[in-house]
Amino acid sequence: MCVEIEAKLKVDSLEEVEQKLTELGAKFLAEQLQTDFLLDDANATLTTTDRCLRLRRQTVAGSESFFLTYKGAKEKSNFKKRQEIETEIIDAPSIQKLLSALGYEKVLVVEKKRCLWQLGGCAVALDQLPLLGDFVEIEGPNNEEIADVQNSLGLSELTHIEKSYAQLIKEEHNK
Q1: C-alpha triplet 113, 175, 8: angle, nearest 5°
Q2: Which of 46, 57, 72, 96 has the smallest CB count inside 10 Å?
Q3: What is the pTM of this model?
Q4: In this predicted structure, what is the pLDDT of residue 1?
Q5: Which pLDDT tens digit goes with each residue over 15-64?
Q6: What are the φ/ψ torsions at residue 164 (nearest 5 degrees)?
Q7: Considering only CA atoms, which of 156, 164, 163, 74 is closest in space to residue 112?
């Protein structure tokens, strides 16, 4: 079973975090444009049980790829921790037809620009979302390494956000 463990932090400035990553010798991996299509059935079975089915279109340097991801319900943890199963797909239109035939339809679209870095054993994503603002996600193999990276970036005082971007966008629309 694959488990995703991450800290999601709302920040005022991604430039400051990027500067700190550079100072610490982090490795810049890629700038990505991601469009996430969140899927659910007519009864919102996944959403109401804190699970997620996502089809992602990702563009890196003009090259497009697609990923299908299932995320399980969040587990009790100091960080956001949940089962994650992801696979790259070649034929996105056929997968969309298959999922639709199974009763899964698009319920929300989330777009973001992501700059991905590697620091220690963690992936550090600098995310810009049009409606929500700027976030840092630190994903790693365990709580300790994530906390170490968060501290080294000077972000230890920030509150961890448990909600997904989809949940945050829905809340923003309901204001």
Answers
A1: 40
A2: 57
A3: 0.93
A4: 57
A5: 999 999 999 999 999 999 999 999 999 999 999 999 999 999 999 999 99
A6: -80, 165
A7: 164
Helices (H), the chain: 14-23, 45-48, 92-101, 143-152, 165-173
Strand stretches in 12-149, DSSP E:
27-40, 52-60, 63-75, 80-89, 105-119, 122-129, 133-139
Q: Give the 3-state secondary structure of residue 161.
A: coil
In the structure encoding, which two tokens stand for residue 140, read together? Answer: 């790693």
Cα 109 to Cα 119: distance, rounded to the nearest angstrom? 29
**CB neighbours of residue 132 within 10 Å:** 16
Q: Is the dihedral of CA 103, 70, 108, 62 positive or negative?
A: negative
Contact between residue 58 and residue 65 where contact means Cβ atoms under 8 Å apart: yes
- 5 has which bridge partners? 81
- The DSSP secondary-structure symbol of 69 reads E
Tell me which residue has tokens 């932090």.
9
